[in-house]
Request: fold
Amino acid sequence: MIVFTVNDMTCGHCVGSITKAVKAVDADAQLQIDLPTRRVQIDATQASAAELSAAIENAGYTPVAQTAAQ
Reply:
């Protein structure tokens, strides 16, 4: 499980944009997005954390990688 905090994710459109960006690099990835806490959890099947982070950044957001304990 790869977890990011995306503080500039503020609405449903943001959630859709991030989902689309992640699916573009890993079509089979499972996402759990919690908008109130701005937390994006990704169960990746193909992409690395760096690739997923880059995809989210390219969509216009600022992902911050989190450890599992946070």
Q: What stands out?
A: The chain has one domain: 2-66. The mean pLDDT is 94.
